[in-house]
Write a structure and sequence with these properties.
By secondary structure, the chain is of the alpha/beta class. The chain has twelve helices and ten strands. It is 40% helix and 20% strand. The chain starts with a helix and ends with a helix.
């Protein structure tokens, strides 16, 4: 009887210890999943709009490639006044070329006009319907299907400074406008939207330190990206802030194909974490530019969630504060 009682006590002790170990590991896993992400403040803002029926809005400023600035490959590709054949818009893997052909199963064009005809020569809007709501979106309170609107603005090649200024000013100050679509849907675009981007030649390389940078005064978080050669070293020192989130910047020479934008949109449609958003955008660039994905993530692209980014571009506003939002 004493031996049996001893075995029973050992069994109870082992069961208790194993059970507590499993519980501890479960708690550890749970705490790991619940760890704040730099994009959480932005996703909370977006979810607030989605819950009242508003869409997720992305604005992309595209400066048409111009042979006056750089060699674009041919006379047609480098005609900065003709968006239809331009390298960054209607030709190659330009904005409309990509979303018209490669994105036709996912995106539907719902608006197009000629802009103001002076600075902006083409303006187009694509809609993507998100029917499956990811667990991440549900954790932010967004539980119903929603729309993503991608607004593309084509700037004349000689108006490249206006396109770059739009990205910087809208990211820093939150300035924007509205766009009314057929059927009555009104979009908050530019700095009023959720993600602002630029695709084109890096004009900041041409003007050097003569650019006049606005103060960061926006009140709500926003994501931004700049698909242009070596954009990180030019915009990160000025735009890094706890309410601005650089989802993708570049560190080398590159082609600003719209496939990278498509990758970013796909990740945000699932409310993925910042590292995943970056990896998906990088993966699309690697796939369609025929470059190794590891090389893109390591040495070509960057984002402000990386520790090396935060050390190099501390910016205004503590990143520790941001991660604790």
């Amino acid at each position: 009887m004493g031996i049996n009682r001893h075995k029973s006590l050992v069994w109870v002790l082992m069961t208790t210890l194993c059970g507590s170990g499993l519980a501890s590991s479960a708690v550890a896993r749970s705490s790991k999943v619940a760890r704040p992400d730099p994009l959480d403040p932005l996703y909370r803002r977006i979810a607030g709009d989605l819950k009242v029926g508003k869409p997720l809005v992305i604005t992309v400023h595209v400066a048409l490639c111009s042979n006056r600035s750089i060699w674009c490959g041919s006379a047609k590709l480098g005609n900065g006044d003709n968006p239809r054949t331009n390298l960054y818009w209607g030709g190659a893997a330009g904005f409309t070329a990509w979303f018209r052909w490669n994105g036709r199963r996912t995106y539907k064009r719902v608006f197009r006009d000629k802009g103001d005809g002076k600075i902006i020569v083409d303006r187009v809007v694509y809609r993507r319907r998100v029917k499956w709501i990811s667990p991440r979106w549900k954790s932010f309170g967004a539980k119903k299907p929603f729309d993503i609107y991608v607004v593309g603005l084509a700037y004349r090649g000689r108006a490249i400074s206006k396109a770059v200024d739009a990205l910087i000013r809208q990211t820093a100050t939150g300035v924007g406008s509205t766009l009314k679509l057929k059927g009555g849907t009104v979009l908050n675009i530019g700095g009023r939207g959720h993600l602002v981007g630029y695709a084109g030649h890096n004009y900041l390389m041409d003007v050097g330190g003569r650019w006049k940078w606005p103060k960061i005064t926006r009140k709500q978080p926003v994501g931004y990206f700049m698909l242009a050669c070596m954009s990180a070293q030019y915009v990160a020192p000025k735009l890094t802030h706890r309410r601005t989130h650089a989802v993708l910047l570049t560190t080398v020479l590159m082609y600003p194909g719209a496939y990278t934008i498509d990758g970013l949109i796909g990740a945000m449609s699932l409310a993925q974490r910042q590292r995943q958003v970056f990896r998906r955008g990088s993966a699309y660039y690697a796939r369609y530019s025929k470059v190794k994905a590891a090389a893109v993530r390591c040495c070509m692209f960057t984002h402000d969630g990386q520790s090396k980014f935060r050390k190099r571009y501390p910016g205004k506003g503590s990143r520790r504060r941001q991660r604790g939002h």
